[in-house]
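Q: Joint fold for the lines below.
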Amino acid sequence: MPELPEVQTIVNELNKKLKNKAIKSVFVNAPKMVQIGPDVVSNVRKVKNGQVKKFSDLLIGKKILSVKRRAKLLIFDLSPTSPQPSHKASAGNARLRRTSGSLSILAHLKMTGQFIFEDKKLRQKTGGKYRLINSSNAPLVQLPSKHTHVIFKFTDGSTLYFNDVRKFGYLKLVRDNEIDQVRELSEYGPEPLNKEFIWGRFFTAVKKRPKGKIKQVLMDPKVVAGIGNIYSDEILFHAKVRPDRKVSSIKNQELRGIYQNIQKVLKQAIKAKGSSVGDFIRTDGSWGQMGKFHFVYGRAGEKCKVCGTVIQSMKIGGRTGSFCPKCQK
DNA sequence: TATATTGTTACACC
DNA sequence: TGGTGTAACAATAT
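A: Joint structure:
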């Protein structure tokens, strides 16, 4: 379940590995998972079967300049669009006129998306599967697998696989100079690890929702970006606040503790390269280590690491939340 | 075969 | 109007 720390882990790794690599080819096996923004190609919102070629055509030859993150979205910035081919090539496609300027790929992993990078020289066959790195921490993965939906090949022989068991994730091409207007990006709240995430702003945003349960408010991307089920549970444990507490009942001091623990827990998780819960693995196929430090998430029925009380779970807003009934008030 | 799963959006209601 | 709550949706494993 990639949340902010998992996405940041992938971004850090891909930014190193993909920087200045040129795209040689793009294979799309699940057309519904790629989109072209309406501002890139007019009159096209979603790429359908016959339009996959446009998606790959727009990408081939481009270099990846950098990989960034906003909330849980990855942003691949590409080198500028090459000059248009001759008039006759575009004559039949007047309505699908390409606009100039740089493109970016927005990628969302949703529940089960994975990016796996394979350097040609690291591929080693082991009984039909491939171990990507020489480490006991790496599970065997088959590449491509039946859940590989998009494959990028680069001119240096390396490959990037986009896997997603549930197919909830997507890749979306948008114009770079209008990226701030993309709705997915413009409506997110502050980045919790940036300077913009100041106490006063957080306090105001939370207090605007007095009837909301604190866990739901923390997971609202408009209040603060990037926090999902795992980290809302963990943050509230460290802040000693039950997830079902109404905002109106939370004392300023408690909210201050939540604010501080948002940054503390997320930073620790990034250091541990994320939590390998569900399908999350790193771009080299290895697991993140944050799961070892979970105090409540996924531990319902087990004993609290602090006081020994059995961890409970409850549905909050249709989601499962876990907490220690003794440590959290 | 029914259910659980999650991030995000849509929408009805107050 | 905007906060609130609920449903819907994507697709699959179990």
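Q: Anything notable?
A: The first strand of chain A starts at residue 23 and ends at 28. The helical segments of chain A are 4-18, 52-59, 87-91, 183-186, 199-207, 214-219, 229-238, 252-271.
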